Write the structure tokens for this entry.
Amino acid sequence: MIAVAGDLALSLKGIRRSYGPVLAVDDVSLDMQKGEFVTLLGPSGSGKTSTLRLVGGFETLDAGEIHIMGRRIDHLPAYQRDTATIFQSGALFPHKTVAENVAYGLRMRKVPRPEIEARVKEALEIVRLGGYEGRYPAQLSGGQKQRVALARSLAVRPAILLFDEPLSALDLSLRLQLRAEIKRLHDELKFSAIYVTHDQGEAMAMSSRVAVMNRGRIEQIDRPEIIFHKPANEFVYTFIGESCVLPVAARGGQLSDKAGKPLSMTLDRGLEDGDWRLYIRPSRLRIGGDAEGLPNRLAARFHFMEFLGDIYRYHLKAGALELFADHTGPLSVEPGQDIAVGWARQDMQAFR
């Protein structure tokens, strides 16, 4: 669907930002419709946080344009942009109560006092902190502090919420709880959001679309399931999820490992002569009896096994190749024994 200007909450047009010789954001363009939850995902130094800070007005553009709700705002200071940011730390005032923290942005906007009280109460109820109005940040857990920070941002009703890795400092259990909470709130309230994270699980679970960034550029932006199953290039494939990489050489229909040793491998697709990198998700590999009848097969040797809770991870070797396959239960196989490995055609990606 072609986005119409009136439908856009945010439009980035060729934005750039350098820090000395380092090009942090390199000609990034992105349109986000109203009500979308778009996650900027990438490794450290990929430009995702710098992009967010440019939108929020915490950094200055070198080139390009930023439009919010159809209005160009890149020349405006942060406090005049219709955004609100939830930081990793929560950034609460320690000497103010929960209610005072939530009300802060409204007071800065000179909202009438009766409306402030109503909106503070509403925001705290939304994040399930009704009754906490009189507490101070020191009396809250890490998760409760982040809920207060979210309530403070929701209370001002910005055009766009900006999330700067808000869950990264929390332990796993709490992170999963708040991830689900933010997802619930977005589904209910339909706010527009840009979310920055390096956590693939967060990006996949929460987002309308994911923008995978690398070296200051967007490599691919699409729905989470498209990003996972149909990556645009090798970087996206290797960054999203776990994968086994099999470096092989094809010569006259014969496959060998990187050391030149012939492999006992059968593929149901031909590879042109040259060096290839074959990628397969460990969850898609089948081993032992489960590999029988599959068109792509590799004779490997069992090395060792890891118990990961819901799955058993089997580490295997085939010549100089090393791979691992996930299985739902234990297998009757000892280290050093041969074992068959198989996979379906659609579960392998080949790159040169």
User: Anything to note?
Assistant: Helices lie at 48-56, 98-108, 113-126, 142-155, 172-189, 200-206, 224-229, 234-239. The chain has a mean pLDDT of 92. The first strand starts at residue 8 and ends at 19. The two ends are 33 Å apart (CA to CA).
